[in-house]
Amino acid sequence: YNKSKTSLDDLGAINLANSAEMTIQMIDLLNEEVKKGTLTLDEAQEKVKIAILGEKDAEGNRPINKNFNLGENGYLFIVDENGQMAAHPYIEGENMLEAEDHNGVRYVQEMITAGNNGGDFTYYEFPLPDNENQIEPKITYSIKDPHWGWIVNASTYMKDFHAPASGILTTISAIILCGVILWIYSSRIASQISFAANRMKALANADLSNDLMQVKSKDEIGKLAKAMNTMQEKLKAMIGNIA
Questions:
Q1: Dihedral of the CA atoms 147, 150, 156, 161 (nearest 10)?
Q2: What is the distance between the alpha carbons of residues 243 and 225, in angstroms, rounded to a whole number?
Q3: Residue 15: how many CB atoms within 10 A of its CB?
């Protein structure tokens, strides 16, 4: 489980980094269009925002683009070097430079630093997209765009990040539980068979003094016990008749 968890965590980290890198490549292509004059800078930047999230609704929020597989609650967002959210599902336009989580982590500053250093991960706590009152641990990979000064971030919550490994743990737990149940059941059967074998030896030695076996089940073991009881009673009756 630990080996699988480590491998899956590595894959999850690579997925976050690749998603951010894909956005950087998209910016590269659109920036060429800006240089050619086929797009304005604002148009090109809006295309990026729509591609990674979606178009703004009437309230100024953007949907989470599920085409990026970043977990159930994961999403891409962009912050500029001044800490302003250039693209975000629900806080776009806000300056978060001084924002910090419950542990005092100034996560936006750490993202900017990570992006300027060539790309790295930031760990912090942040509300869920659909429930601002539920704070969850989060992981974000940040990298800087060389053209517009944007810090592109691919983020997901740790509960989604560890979800594949949690599935493996659930399977392992189920296997262990089944093993315990089978062990208990097989031990019960083995003890009953052992008891029946000892009773058969007693009957073979003409010892009819034992009490009848208690039949508590209707399975094959119960049928065997019932048959042995019948045999013991008939042997007793036969000996009585001979006497």
A1: 40
A2: 27
A3: 19
